[in-house]
Amino acid sequence: MSEVLYEISQLSDKDCFHIAERHKSEFTYPIHRHRECELNFIEHGRGVRRIVGDSVEEIGDFDLVLITAENLEHVWEQGHCTSPDIREITIQFSPELLGESLMAKNQFASIVKMIEKAQHGLAFPIEAIMKVYDKLDTITSQSDGFEQLLVLLKILYELSSFEGHALASSSFANAARDKESRRVKTVKQFINDHYSEDLTLDRLAGLIGMSPTSFSRFFKQRTNKTLTNYITDIRLGNAARMLVDSTHNISEICYTCGFNNLSNFNRVFKDKKGMSPKDFRALYKKNQVIV
Asked: What's domain 5-170's superfamily in CATH?
């Protein structure tokens, strides 16, 4: 099994966070992961390719992403960017920054929800970026660590009022999307455990004692996805994970993940991920550092 670079952060045990600001013309750091939570801001980065788990997207002039999962691979690579001065601000902070007692208080509820969602990687809309832009400037220029901490908390709080775009799929990131009802959790867990099998509407509806018609409507209301689309996404996430972590050929991965037709698998994968399974694997291998 291949592993990507596990980054040793410059964040010390005695500090709450570490901030780095860089001006550069290209991205050269390999795909990596780390224990620390990370808020990464990029300015003048139009055309840069952002990879977070199995999400591959080309960013605009501004990009702001929060990642809170320890094992979620990510990298920003040059892509089509030609800017001579790309500005990047990276803030890494400990998962224990606030502690369980403080995070249990009502005043931090929106931050806690955002941090949970960011286990998939969370990209913020331009409105959110502009809301905290001045504070990102402030936090890099201040020399007082306590004042920086207050600014960081304010940034997190203000971002938590926006609906960010979750990046990596649940099955790739190995994280749940949200806190959900018992019935939804039961069905999703069954799909996660049996995604390689034939998952019929009747079979899944029977798990929670609903008729197929009622269950289909119930699932769409609770997840904003049809059952078919949800199962496909779970299968694709697991397939993407196998493409990254294994040496199995694409045909083996196709059938192992519940697809019964290789050409259909290739078509659906390219439609959802923007590239073929072969190109996705090659993209990851290009950015990997074997350890």
From this structure: Regulatory protein AraC (2.60.120.280)
